[in-house]
Amino acid sequence: MHDHGLSGNPALTPVALLALEQLERLGAVGSKHVTAAGDVLFAAGDASYDFFVVLDGSADIVERLGEATERVVASYGPGEFLGEIGMLTGERARLAGVMRSAGRVLRVPLRQIQVLMAQDTDLSDFVLRTFLERRANLLRKGAGLTLVGSRYDPRCRALLQSFSRNRTAVNWLDLEAQPEAEALLQELRVPVTDLPIVLVPGRPMLRNPQPADIAAEFGEPPTEVDDDDRDVCDLLVVGGGPGGLAAAVYGASEGLQTALLDTAAFGGQAGTSSRIENYLGFPAGLSGAELAARGTVQAAKFGVRLHRNAHAVAFAGRTGRHQITCDDGRVFSARDVIIATGAEYRRLTVPGAEAWEGSGVHYAATVAEAQSCLGHPVAVIGGANSAGQAAMFLSRTSDPVHLLVRGRDLEHSMSRYLLDAVVANPKIRVWLRTEAVALDAGSAVTALDVVDRPTGRRSRVEVGAVFVFIGATPCTGWLGGRLATDRDGFLLTGHDLDDAWKADRAPLSFETSEPGVFCVGDARSGSVKRVATAVGEGSAAVRLIFERRRLDGDRHLFV
């Protein structure tokens, strides 16, 4: 593969050549086609596309095909395959695949490649990691979508954060700093009142998009909900982090008709982790994106109905049928519900920080955020594993990385393996008992004022961006107080319910104050904030659903 400026160092991008035996396995489920130069294999905007392997000749991945600003993103030769992770996770094609020269291709239908990925470990690992690397390269360059808006517009900042959570490549043109943004608006004849706008390759322009617009473009369009019992699924999982993905996979594999909702891309906070080193079965570690992608592919294999960009805003529960409403109007009903909405980091309360969220103040550290401050010093605020992982990841592209910790040490908040790595990293400077008190910014974030808590001494740290990983606020507000919580808003479950329990029988582990509604992962009171724990809880909750149905004499016990 020839990478046209996406990775920053094309020589470091490995060629994804399929082995002969892998080609044979793909050939058994695909078909060979003769192609001419200029043939379009798939176009930007296609709802889905098949898996293509170049047998003879060459193919290009092209951005803005047919436009004056057309650009070749990557090129592939014999033995290489086209595509990136969006193919497997149900996203529309954002770029076009075009034959650069005459040749032959092997075309494998999407459904066949999904089956093969689920059955062939060797091929699955190779394709999945290649796809993830290509997505990372797209994120670095911002190839795909174009967002035009002002950094001071909260709607624009919200879109930036949404695209970051979705791990969607986007080229942001800031109206305040980039003259080409104004020129583009004039060319498109878009008034400022229509901002922000999103230009989606092969699709109509989105003007000041609302939740329903985003869901229709990046998730799926709203569907009519019938009161007929056939539209009620057996299990609805709300939240697609490790716990939610595990619950969906185990539920569907046990025969439950299962649907999975998530506000953004599947994977949750763990999906933005650069490296998870202590997950069983992966001695070399794996990225959060890889874990999320594997879980999503596995869920699709068992027939889970996946709904991304489905932001739950209301809950209504009654025995035998619970209902979840999303902000775009979609309504989902289920006999049992597992809530796995997790927790989010607390906002930085430094004056003026809100105005820079998404463009200098970040709550995730992925390739997209790292690219925005490439080569500049940065600050990471927090003392737990998420902050440590972010500091390690950012140290690859920023020097120095200032890790600001309110506590007196890291031993009580960070895993030992990670603590040792942070301390040994020469690019990371750890500030203990330190708190951020002011943000300095003109046209961009330039510095952070910090205070040494014991002495009150104030210092200025020159930074190009601030990454915040402090505390945890449960994502349970959408429930409207209908389920019992502790004083911090985390859901009470099992024996912790006491007087809040609503049924005659004793509550099951992970069961909330509403019978048939369970909670796993970080949103649950008393949970251990670790990926492996969330996965275990998700699978255990599915087993308890069958126990709940047995105890309650549910006629849908056998599905």
Summarize this structure briefly.
The protein is of the alpha/beta class.
Overall residue-averaged pLDDT value:
87
Q: Distance between the terminal alpha carbons, to the nearest Å?
A: 47 Å
The major sheet is characterized as: 7 strands, mixed
- Which radius of gyration do the C-alpha atoms yield? 24 Å
Helix content: 25-40%
Q: Given the helix and strand composition, which structural class is it?
A: alpha/beta
The backbone outline, from C-alpha atoms, is globular
List how many beta strands DSSP finds. Answer: 29
Q: Which runs of at least 5 residues are low in confidence (pLDDT < 50)?
A: 5-13, 221-230
Which oligomerization state do the chains in this entry correspond to?
single chain
By DSSP (H or I, 4+ residues per run), the number of helices equals: 13
Estimate what percentage of residues fall within beta strands. 15-25%
